Structures are given as structure tokens and as C-alpha cells.
User: Which sequence fits this backbone?
């Protein structure tokens, strides 16, 4: 007999807008999963340097740090749907331009860095708007199910996209792989444009500055929120460094290049899909206690790469980390959507994203330098320590351990 938790969770796909958003996630994240593999291997092939590759890989996150707060405020003040459509369209244009440069042989580090800054700006407007749009589509009691299903769409797409991306880079090259990613953004924009969300509640403040101040007050009023965001400023820096730079570099030097790394990234995506299925059932009384315990598993991939262990073992580590990572994400976004007022959700989400990615550009660049100076093993073990120490600190905070899921 089918489990009622899964049946009731999956049943929300019968809703028109949830189904279309689900398909949009499938399409755009399949392309997005190809992009880091294509970009990293394309740059390493072009430059042979993790330092220069790190600069380009870090560029979109740096752009996000610069504009996220403005993006969140605009999303709350105007139309989240319209912001997402424009952001996806801009990302499509930037990614197609990068593909054209690589295919024509005219790419340079300054040009690619500039286009990646454009791409990062687009995604910085997209992320807080997307977090707020979900509450305009799903009923409150359906939020966890919708977050789980969208996570499953995103992560099954990541699994497929990573595997296909590794093969495409090895066969047709980085340029054509990035062109496919660009087209996926365009298709997603068309689907988002057809959604019919509930009327958006907008703030009544006199200025955007006041909107930003109100968002900051709401953000810092929740101890569990700002503590975990501070924790993730370091964890995301490690994750981006490993997946965007060091993993491909280790695969290129000691494994079978993009094919092996694509396999590992694909298994990570499969793990996140399993995590999404589990999140349809899990309803912890203390969601942030559970979520923080899950983050201890985020050391598995850098530890496995540091040896490096055989590809099947690295892939197994990636599977576990993918599953726990998606469980964390569903618990996090559902808690955020339930605890934060709807008219402030994009602004608070912007502070969340900003804090989480603030150190990522620095981390990627530093990782590229340390990789060349200290070697892969020492740099990856530093990554392990950078995950463990802030996670222990976050778990020691009373509000993180004892905040409940009740309103």
C-alpha cells in the first residue's frame, strides 16, 4: 500500500501552478547542473591555472553579494513573478554569450568574468523572489510538501544534468554545454510567465531604505536564523570551492576528468532526490536542531577527495551529503516561510542568501591559491575543519536546538 505521507505530498502536483513550477525547476536545473562542470573544465583547459579559474568561478557569487539586498527589496515591493522572468532572461543572455566566446575561441578571463558577474546579478534577483513566490502559490499547510517536490525536481535535474554535462564536455566541449544551459533559462522564464499566483502583499514603507531596515530588523530578531546563516557563510564557501573548483581539479589530475566528476556530481543529485522523498515524511518538533545535525555530513566529499578515495567511495559520500543537504534545505525553507511574515519574506530571504554566500567568492579564490601552494590534500582538510567548527558552534546555541515548528 502506498504511504499516505508520500501520496498526500505528491498530490499537490495536481495543482496547475505547482506543476508548472515543478517543470520549470526540472528544465532550468538540468541546464544549470551542466554549467559548473563545463565552465570549470573549459577554464582549466584554457588557462591551466586554478588561480585564474577561481576568479571567474567566484565572479557570480561576488555579484550576488553586491545586489542581493536590493533584489529582495524590489521583489517584495513589485512583482516576484516578473522579477524572476526578467532574471531568467538575463541569465540566458549571459550564458549564451559565454558559450559563443568559448566556441569562437575569443574568450578571455576579463570577458568571462564580466559575463559571470551579469549571470550572478540575475541569480541574485531570482533567489529571494523565488522564496517569496512559493507562498503565493502553495497553501500554508502544503508548504513543506511543495518545498520537498521542488527540491526533488531541482535535485533530480542536478543528477541528470551533472551526468549529461560530464559526457557533453568530454564529447562536444564546454561551449555547446553552456549553450544548452542558456536555453534552459529561457524555457524556464516562459513557464514562470504563465503562473497565476495569489495577489502579492507589499510593504507600506516610504522608501526602499526603510524596507531594507525593516528586513534587517526581522532577520536579526530570530537568533536561530542569523546564527545558521553565519554558519553557512563558511559552509557555502567550502561547498562552492569543492564543487566549482577543487573537485574538477582533483578529477582532472588524478581521476578520469570530467567523466568521473560528472558521475560524482550526478550521484550527489540522486542523493538529494532521496532526501526530498524523505522530507515528505519527516516533521521534526525541533527543525533547526535536526537541520544542524545534518550539516555534520558536509565534510564527507572534501574528506574523500583529499586522499583521493576510489570514485565509487567518493560517489557514496556525495550521495549521503546530497540527501542530508536536501533534507536541510526543505526544513530550512519551510521554517523560514512559516516564521517570517509574507510581505517581508523576500527581504529576509535576501539577507539569508547574502549572509550565506558572502564569503564564497573569497573562499573560492583562496582555495585556488592554496590548492597551488599547499596541494590538494592540505587544502581539502582545511575545508573539513571549516565545516566542522562553525557547525559545532551553531549547535551550541539554545535557540537553534530548542526552536519548535509550532507557530
Assistant:
Amino acid at each position: 500500500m502506498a504511504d499516505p505521507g508520500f501520496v498526500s505530498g505528491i498530490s499537490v502536483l495536481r495543482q496547475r501552478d505547482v506543476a508548472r513550477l515543478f517543470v520549470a525547476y526540472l528544465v532550468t536545473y538540468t541546464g544549470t547542473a551542466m554549467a559548473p562542470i563545463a565552465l570549470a573544465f573549459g577554464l582549466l583547459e584554457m588557462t591551466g591555472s586554478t588561480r585564474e579559474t577561481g576568479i571567474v568561478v567566484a565572479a557570480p557569487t561576488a555579484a550576488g553579494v553586491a545586489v542581493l539586498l536590493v533584489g529582495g527589496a524590489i521583489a517584495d515591493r513589485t512583482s516576484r513573478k516578473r522579477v524572476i522572468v526578467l532574471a531568467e532572461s538575463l541569465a540566458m543572455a549571459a550564458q549564451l554569450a559565454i558559450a559563443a566566446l568559448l566556441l569562437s575561441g575569443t574568450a578571455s578571463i576579463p570577458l568571462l568574468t564580466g559575463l559571470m558577474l551579469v549571470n550572478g546579478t540575475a541569480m541574485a534577483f531570482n533567489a529571494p523572489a523565488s522564496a517569496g513566490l512559493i507562498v503565493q502559490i502553495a497553501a500554508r499547510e502544503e508548504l513543506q510538501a511543495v518545498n520537498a517536490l521542488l527540491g526533488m525536481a531541482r535535485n533530480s535535474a542536478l543528477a541528470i544534468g551533472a551526468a549529461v554535462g560530464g559526457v557533453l564536455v568530454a564529447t562536444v566541449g564546454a561551449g555547446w554545454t553552456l549553450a544548452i544551459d542558456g536555453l534552459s533559462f529561457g524555457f524556464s522564464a516562459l513557464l514562470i510567465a504563465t503562473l497565476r499566483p495569489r495577489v502579492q502583499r507589499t510593504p507600506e514603507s516610504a522608501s526602499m531604505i526603510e524596507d531594507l531596515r525593516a528586513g534587517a530588523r526581522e532577520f536579526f530578531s530570530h537568533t536561530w536564523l542569523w546564527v545558521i546563516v553565519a554558519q553557512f557563510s563558511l559552509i557555502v564557501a567550502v561547498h562552492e570551492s569543492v564543487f566549482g573548483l577543487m573537485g574538477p581539479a582533483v578529477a582532472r589530475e588524478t581521476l578520469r576528468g570530467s567523466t568521473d566528476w560528472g558521475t560524482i556530481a550526478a550521484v550527489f543529485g540522486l542523493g538529494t532526490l532521496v532526501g526530498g522523498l524523505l522530507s515528505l515524511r519527516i516533521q521534526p518538533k525541533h527543525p533547526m536542531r535536526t537541520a544542524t545535525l545534518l550539516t555534520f555530513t558536509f565534510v564527507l566529499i572534501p574528506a574523500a577527495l583529499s586522499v583521493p578515495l576510489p570514485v565509487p567511495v567518493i560517489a557514496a559520500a556525495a550521495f549521503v551529503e546530497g540527501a542530508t543537504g536536501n533534507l536541510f534545505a526543505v526544513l530550512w525553507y519551510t521554517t523560514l516561510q512559516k516564521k517570517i511574515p509574507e510581505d517581508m519574506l523576500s527581504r529576509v530571504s535576501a539577507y539569508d542568501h547574502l549572509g550565506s554566500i558572502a564569503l564564497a567568492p573569497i573562499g573560492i579564490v583562496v582555495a585556488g591559491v592554496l590548492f597551488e601552494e599547499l596541494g590538494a590534500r592540505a587544502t581539502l582538510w582545511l575545508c573539513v575543519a571549516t565545516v566542522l567548527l562553525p557547525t559545532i558552534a551553531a549547535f551550541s546555541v539554545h535557540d537553534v536546538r530548542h526552536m519548535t515548528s509550532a507557530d
Remarks:
- The two ends are 33 Å apart (CA to CA).
- The mean pLDDT is 85.
- The chain has 17 helices and no strands.
